[in-house]
Write a structure and sequence with these properties.
Alpha/beta knot, binds S-adenosylmethionine
C-alpha cells in the first residue's frame, strides 16, 4: 500500500512514521509513505503557496496550482490506478469511520492532501479531490495530523502489517460492536480481580462472556452502533441478551 502525502510540512511526519508498527511495515516493504512538499510545485520566484482570499476576511488561502501540480506529478510518476482516491483532509468532510478505512485499504494507493491556514482554494475540493475526510468535529491547524490518523488506521489493515495475535478482525467497529474488556497479569491488582471466567480455561464460556460484555458495553457507551449494526451480525442469543439488558 502506498500513501502519497501532499503537505507544506513533511518534517511533521518524521517521528510518527518512524516508530512501531508503521516503521516495521515500511521496512518490510508492505507500506510506503511518500511525502511531497507542495512548495516544490510553486512556480513563482518566491515559491508562494498561499494568497489573500478573494472577498476579504482574515487568513490566507492555499493556491490551487501547486496542489493540482503536485497531484499530477504523483499520478504521472507513480503510475496510479485511475480509481486512486484523492483525499482532501478537511473539517468539512465526511467523518472518518472504520468502513471508510476498510474501503481505503482495498486500494493500492491513496493520495492525501493536507490543508493549512484558512484552508484550500475551493477548486481543489471541486475538481481535484475525489473525497473530503474529517477526523472529527474540531478544527486542527493543519491536515497533517489527520493524514497520519488515516495512514495509521489504513496501514494496520494491510495484510501482514499487524501480527495475527493482534488481528484487527476482533477490533471495536470491525465487528460492529465495541470490543470486550481486556485483562493481563497480575490476576489481582490493588484488590481488583480479573473475572474468574477468564482464568477458567473454558473457551466456550470465555467466548460467551466476551460477547456479552461487548454487547453490554456497546449498549451503554455507543447505543447508536446497535441501531446501525446489520442484522446478520447479531445472533438470536445476542438479541435475547440485549433484551434482558434493556429490561434491566
Ligand atoms: C485551520 S484549518 C481550516 C478550517 C477552515 N477555515 C474551516 O473553517 O473549515 C486548516 C486545515 O487543517 C485541516 N483540518 C482541520 N481540521 C480538520 C479535521 N477535523 N479533519 C481533517 N482535517 C482538518 C484541513 O486540511 C484544513 O484545510
Amino acid at each position: 500500500m502506498r500513501f502519497h502525502v501532499l503537505t507544506l510540512f513533511p518534517g511533521m511526519f518524521e517521528g510518527p512514521m518512524s516508530e512501531s508498527i508503521i516503521a516495521r511495515a515500511q521496512s518490510q516493504g508492505l507500506v510506503e509513505v511518500n511525502l511531497h512538499d507542495i512548495r516544490d510545485h510553486a512556480r513563482d520566484k518566491h515559491r508562494q503557496v498561499d494568497d489573500y482570499g478573494f472577498g476579504g476576511g482574515p487568513g490566507m488561502v492555499m493556491k490551487p496550482a501547486p496542489i493540482f501540480e503536485a497531484v499530477e506529478h504523483v499520478k504521472s510518476s507513480s503510475s496510479l490506478a485511475a480509481s486512486t482516491p484523492v483525499v482532501l483532509l478537511s473539517p468539512q468532510g465526511k467523518r472518518l469511520d472504520q468502513e471508510t478505512v476498510e474501503r481505503f485499504a482495498e486500494h493500492t494507493d491513496l493520495i492525501l492532501i493536507c490543508g493549512r491556514y484558512e484552508g484550500v482554494d475551493e477548486r481543489v475540493r471541486q475538481h481535484l479531490a475525489t473525497e473530503e475526510i474529517s477526523i472529527g468535529d474540531y478544527v486542527l491547524a493543519g491536515g497533517e495530523l489527520a493524514a497520519m490518523v488515516v495512514i495509521d488506521a489504513v496501514a494496520r489493515l494491510v495484510p501482514g502489517v499487524v501480527g495475527s495475535a493482534e488481528s484487527p478482525a476482533n477490533d471495536t467497529f470491525t465487528t460492529g460492536l465495541l470490543q470486550h474488556p481486556l485483562y493481563t497479569r497480575p490476576t489481582e491488582y490493588r484488590d481488583w480481580n480479573v473475572p474468574e471466567v477468564l482464568l477458567s480455561g473454558n473457551h466456550a464460556e470465555i467466548d460467551r462472556w466476551r460477547r456479552q460484555e461487548a454487547l453490554r458495553r456497546t449498549l451503554i457507551q455507543r447505543p447508536d452502533l446497535l441501531e446501525r449494526i446489520s442484522a446478520g451480525r447479531l445472533t438470536d442469543e445476542d438479541r435475547r441478551y440485549l433484551e434482558e439488558l434493556r429490561e434491566g
